[in-house]
Amino acid sequence: MADEALVVIDLQNDFCPGGALAVNGGDEIVPLVNDLIRRTEHVVLTQDWHPAGHSSFASSHPGKQPFEAIDMPYGPQTLWPDHCIQGSLGSDFHSGLAWTKAELVIRKGFRSAIDSYSAFFENDHATPTGLAGYLKERGVESVTLVGLATDFCVAFSALDAVKQGFNTTVRLDACRGIDLNGSVESMLKRMREAGVRLEDQASD
Ligand code: VGL
Ligand code: ZN
Domain Isochorismatase-like, which positions (predicted)? Predict the structure, then answer.
C-alpha cells in the first residue's frame, strides 16, 4: 500500500479553549489525534504563525471588528482576533499533543500581507507552502487531515490536497469547527463534492 501521511492542522493553544481564537471543544481532539499519530507512518504538523500586525487581524484595520470580512488583493478575507503570533504561548502546540514524531512542521501565515488557511497554498491559492512537493518526493499518495478548524484550515487544506492529486480523508471526529454563518455545513459540502472522504471514525 502506498505511503500515508497524517497532517495535523493548527492544534495550537490559541485555537483551544482559553485561547485568542478558541474553537469549541478544540482540546477534546488531542487524545484521538495522538492515537492517529502513533498509527501513521508520516506525520506532518502545521502551525499558524503570524507576525504581529498581520493583515488578517481586525486590529490591523481601523474600524473593523473580528469576524467581519474585507476585500484583499487576493480576494475576500475574514478578519480575526490577533492570534498565533510567532513565538507567543498561543502559537505553541497544545501541551498534550504528541508532536515529537512529526517529521515536518509547516508554518503558514508568516507573510504580513497574506493569510494562509491551507497547508498547501496561501490564500491567493497560488503561493505554495512546499508541502505537496515534500509529500510527493517522499512517495506519499494518501493524506488524512485532522485538527482545527474544520471549516477553515482543515477544509482548505483538504480541498488543495485533492487538487494536488492526493487520496484525501478528513477524520471529522478529530476536528472541531469555528462555524461562522454556516461555514461548517458549507465547507463539508464543498469537501464532499470535491472528492474528500469524510469519516466520523476509523474505517478499519
Ligand atoms: C485558522 C482562522 C485564522 C484555522 C487560522 O486554523 O482554521 N482560522 N487562522
Ligand atoms: Zn491565522
Answer: 5-200
Quick one: what percent of the chain has pLDDT higher than 90? 97
Establish whether residue 48 lines the binding site of ligand 1, counting it when its CB lies within 6 angstroms of any ligand atom.
yes
The answer to whether 108 is a known catalytic residue is: yes
Nearest atom (ligand 1) to Cα of 15: 6
Helices 183-194/155-163 angle, 10° precision: 10
Residues 6+ apart with CB under 8 A from 63: none
Task: Give the active site residue among 27, 48, 82, 153.
Answer: 153
Ligand 1 centre from 123 Cα, in Å? 11
- E-strand ranges in the chain read 3-9, 42-48, 69-72, 75-78, 104-108, 140-148, 167-176, 197-199
pLDDT digits (tens, 9 = 90+) for 49-72: 999 999 999 999 999 999 999 999
Q: Which of 31, 8, 6, 26 is nearest to 16 (CA)?
A: 26
CATH number listed for the domain at residues 4-199: 3.40.50.850
For the segment 162-178, the average pLDDT, to the nearest whole number, is 98
pTM over 0.90: yes
Residue 45 Cβ contacting ligand 1 at under 6 Å: no
